Amino acid sequence: MWHKRGLKTGKYRSRLEAKAAVMMASVDGLEYEKTKLSYTLLKNYLPDFRVGNIVIEVKGFFDSPDRTKIRKVREEHPEIDLRMFFGDFTKKIHKNSKTSYKAWCEKQGILCCQKVIPNSWIIDLQQEAKRIKP
């Protein structure tokens, strides 16, 4: 079982895991990588612009970590009306994708615009400011 580099790993990802398995071999019902456990990364999101519950995120480049962040923020804060302002929303989410920034937002139910903030958004922001004013 041992050779000059250490324990053969077999089904384990590392020699240390294999060594631990040997130490726990007498445990009935011990499973190796059978169940996945979900978890949420504790990170903070700093919106570019916010009035009350309306958030405007400005993006020139919208990479995968940013998309994940936006998706997670929306999942964990459904009270927030998150909107995206792009320099060009026809850009693809990555080089070989057919999905544009705009299509991604539409799929996520996120309002988006490019180059100019729509007057309707300005009105929404003004109304939100009046609503939250003490």
**CATH uppermost class of the largest domain:** Alpha Beta
- What is the overall silhouette? elongated
- What is the radius of gyration computed over CA atoms, rounded to a whole number of angstroms? 24 Å
The number of distinct structural domains comes to: 2
The helix-and-strand class reads alpha/beta
Distance between the ends: 74 Å
Strand order of the largest sheet: 3-4-5-6
Q: Roughly what is the average pLDDT, rounded to an integer?
A: 87
The amount of helix comes to 25-40%
Fold-level CATH name of the largest domain: Restriction Endonuclease
Task: Write up this protein.
- 33% of the residues lie in helices and 17% in strands.
- With 134 residues, it is of the alpha/beta class.
- It has 2 domains: 1-35, no CATH class; 49-132, Restriction Endonuclease.
- The strands form 2 sheets. A 4-stranded mixed sheet has the order 3-4-5-6. Strands 1-2 form a two-stranded antiparallel sheet.
- The radius of gyration is 24 Å and the shape is elongated.
